[in-house]
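Here is the promised in-class demo. Please do not try to memorize the tokens; focus on the logic of going from shape to residues.
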């Protein structure tokens, strides 16, 4: 008699409340189910809600905003997968969920999706400082995660379906490598969201807390590193950046914003809001969905940061497997991408030609 065990999770009201153990007996095809109750701690609840997905009417509205048609979605996904296989300089295959997230971030424009995917794999090759050595258990990354900066995406979404991320410093000064590692971790969270935003969101809101931002940090900011990061965010990831809110501002924070603005598209510059009072932020982001430090109810920043640290570690093998998924410029049809042109000093960047 052969017995095979399959473990399943039963979800009730978005919480894991039971674990089912199914024993399938090949000899007579009898199915035995044993339910084992588990006690959920508050920490486990937080982990199960790392990225709560929109549902019901809100999910329907988001799909309409993203121009996602359930009737043609699979066809569009198949078209992108077929296009990817035909590009000699790009990976032959990638997982369905990231590709679907790219389609959503491109409002289901196949041509825009192709441009973003090409740029994504191009930047992965062009910026090894961001896309290699992505092990969250390494001493360097662990130090940044634990003592330098917090940047968790929040569990919930706003009433109009936008995901909120809060970034705040824990230490007033970072060296150049720690600044680069901070940007690397931000992109690592972005990669996880390519997979885990299974229902899709209507855009992103970023809240930057400048309470701990030392003046010495400005002197260590590399224009080339910041520019590469901004190209990644604006051109290579399927991000719909709707708003940037800056709280706990200071002259140092304002100089930082002035430093970054030249690397932003004009439409993004117009979406930056500086708040003198945190209560002004509540006009844009519901207070209750914020961490406790900001008057909300979604846990503390330390708890949220730990949950994301655990998730980054969980993806350790996945990140390692992604190392090989880069653009090979020697195989690109036509003219290979010139990185010096891509990161030109004139502040612009070249659009990739897509077949």
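The designed amino acids, position by position:
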């Amino acid at each position: 008699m052969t017995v095979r065990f399959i473990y399943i999770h039963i979800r009730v009201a978005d919480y894991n409340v039971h674990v089912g153990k199914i024993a399938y007996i090949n000899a007579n095809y009898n199915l035995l189910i044993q339910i084992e109750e588990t006690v959920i701690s508050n920490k486990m609840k937080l982990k199960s809600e790392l990225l709560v997905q929109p549902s019901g009417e809100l999910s329907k509205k988001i799909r309409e905003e993203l121009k996602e048609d359930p009737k043609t979605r699979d066809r569009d996904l198949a078209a992108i997968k077929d296009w990817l296989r035909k590009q000699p300089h790009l990976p032959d295959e990638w997982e369905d969920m990231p590709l679907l997230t790219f389609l959503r971030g491109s409002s289901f424009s196949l041509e825009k999706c192709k441009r973003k995917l090409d740029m994504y794999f191009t930047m992965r090759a062009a910026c090894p400082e961001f896309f290699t050595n992505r092990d969250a258990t390494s001493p360097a990354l662990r130090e940044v995660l634990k003592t330098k900066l917090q940047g968790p995406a929040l569990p919930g979404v706003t009433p109009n379906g936008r995901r909120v991320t809060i970034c705040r410093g824990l230490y007033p000064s970072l060296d150049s490598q720690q600044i680069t590692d901070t940007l690397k971790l931000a992109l690592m969270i972005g990669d996880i969201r390519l997979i885990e935003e299974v229902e899709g969101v209507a855009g992103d809101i970023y809240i930057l807390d400048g309470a701990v931002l030392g003046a010495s940090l400005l002197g260590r900011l590399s224009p080339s590193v910041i520019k590469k990061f901004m190209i990644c965010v604006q051109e290579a990831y399927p991000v719909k950046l709707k708003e940037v809110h800056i709280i706990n501002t200071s002259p140092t924070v304002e100089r930082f914003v002035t430093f970054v603005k030249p690397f932003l598209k004009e439409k993004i510059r117009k979406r930056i809001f500086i708040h003198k009072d945190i209560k002004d932020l509540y006009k844009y982001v519901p207070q209750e969905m914020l961490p406790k430090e900001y008057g909300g109810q979604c846990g503390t920043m330390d708890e949220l940061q730990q949950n994301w640290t655990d998730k980054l570690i969980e993806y350790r093998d996945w990140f390692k497997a992604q190392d090989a998924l880069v653009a090979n410029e020697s195989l690109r049809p036509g003219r290979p991408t010139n990185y010096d042109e891509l990161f030109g000093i004139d502040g612009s960047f070249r659009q990739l030609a897509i077949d």
